[in-house]
Design a protein that fits this description.
Layout: H1 6-11, H2 18-23, E1 41-45, E2 48-58, E3 61-69, E4 79-81, E5 88-90, E6 93-99, H3 102-106, E7 110-116, H4 121-125, H5 141-160
Antiparallel strand pairs: 1-2, 2-3, 3-6, 4-5, 6-7
The structure holds zinc ion.
Zinc ion (ZN) binds at residues 82, 84-85, 87, 115-116, 121, 124.
Length: 161
């Protein structure tokens, strides 16, 4: 993906207030990230461990989403599969929940999915990060990237519906 700036990321949030989008913690090392290996930018908030975010370009538009993770204890020891990149993980999958955009979110509606807890899906499907399991798929890297982006688009679609 093309490198993003802090300003672009903050302006792209669809499911939180402008104030929250301006205060939340964006990665400090944006210029040093391995952008050529990323299909989307996902990160955990270093100052609020239950918070996670991602930004992805869909149909030429950058969309960013805020997420909250459920308590670590419930998933930590379990092996599970990320619903975005479909990579099996050992103790590294979290149930992340996004408030829905607009009125639905204000009424408390949310969308949840199991995701790689560090949101480094792009690095797992490229073998750049070890997921601790032996698992081989017949899909090519391009096919895995397409599937990842399709799953992200579906998730964002539910958040913004
Ligand atoms: Zn993943």
């Amino acid at each position: 993906m093309k490198p993003l700036t802090e300003k672009e990321i903050r302006a792209a949030f669809v499911n939180c207030s402008k104030g929250e989008a301006s205060r939340l913690n964006v990665p400090r090392d944006l210029p040093e990230l391995p952008w050529e290996d990323l299909d989307f930018l996902g990160w955990r908030d270093p100052q609020a461990p239950d918070r996670a975010y991602f930004a992805v370009e869909l149909d030429g538009r950058l969309v960013a989403v805020t997420l909250r993770s459920t308590a670590a204890a419930s998933w930590q020891a379990r092996r599970s599969i990320c619903s975005l990149c479909v990579t099996p993980q050992t103790g590294n999958v979290a149930l992340l929940v996004a408030p829905r955009a607009g009125q639905a979110g204000k009424q408390g509606n949310s969308v949840g999915a199991y995701m790689c807890a560090d949101l480094a899906c792009s690095l797992y499907i490229r073998g750049r990060k070890d997921n601790g399991t032996r698992f081989h798929e017949s899909l090519t890297e391009e096919e895995k990237v397409a599937r990842l982006l399709g799953n992200l688009a579906e998730f964002v679609g539910k958040v913004t519906a």
